[in-house]
Amino acid sequence: MSAADMAQTIQPLALNVRLSCQLLDVPESSYYQRINRHPSKTQLRRQYLSLKISQLFNANRGIYGAPKIHHLLLKQGEKVGLKLVQTEPTKKNKVWSTDITYIPTQQGWAYLSTIMDRYTKKVIAWDLGKRMTVELVQRTLNKAIKSQDYPEAVILHSDQGSQYTSLEYEELLKYYGMTHSFSRRGYPYHNASLESWHGHLKREWVYQFKYKNFEEAYQSIFWYIEAFYNSKRIHQSLGYLTPNQFEKVSA
Fold it and tell me: Which parts of the chain are coiled coil (predicted)?
């Protein structure tokens, strides 16, 4: 039985908490903190507005963008700024983007799952898999949550791929108290920051090599992200700082 099948069985049946946490790779203490914590007024307000935004988006068949949805919210008497509707963050751990891209090797494709903080442009978690599965994106999300010390009320933006719309993934997001934001089908620019990063990764690094196998690809991508991108690659949009530097000065 796969980890995803186990999670899907354990959650509805409310089995042993310790076993559930081990299978989902999350600390047991965090589980109890989560269920005993009461949401703040700000969190409740954000959850309410997120629901309203989703309802308006779906009611208009995904055609309306942020400005039109903002206008409809104002007409309904909601006091909300356009920036909140656009979900553009003003500090870290508010909005994350996630996506999967293909990495070629001589033994076939590898699949890179990435999560980036939209504010700092830092790759906060990544994983490379031999198959494009729900387990791959779950592992990446668990890594991101741990690396950022279990932040609250994060908005996670993704496309509508089957991995991200799966019941298992939605349950994990719910467990962490996260809001899921989707790109419209066929509109990858809605997730432009991460799409752009994957493009830079391939042009600047991956396409220089012909990886013999999965392990060689993994080691190469590890170097690019951990030894170069986060710590050495400067960004004009960050004032010519690296993601790690910008994260420190903006803390």
Answer: none
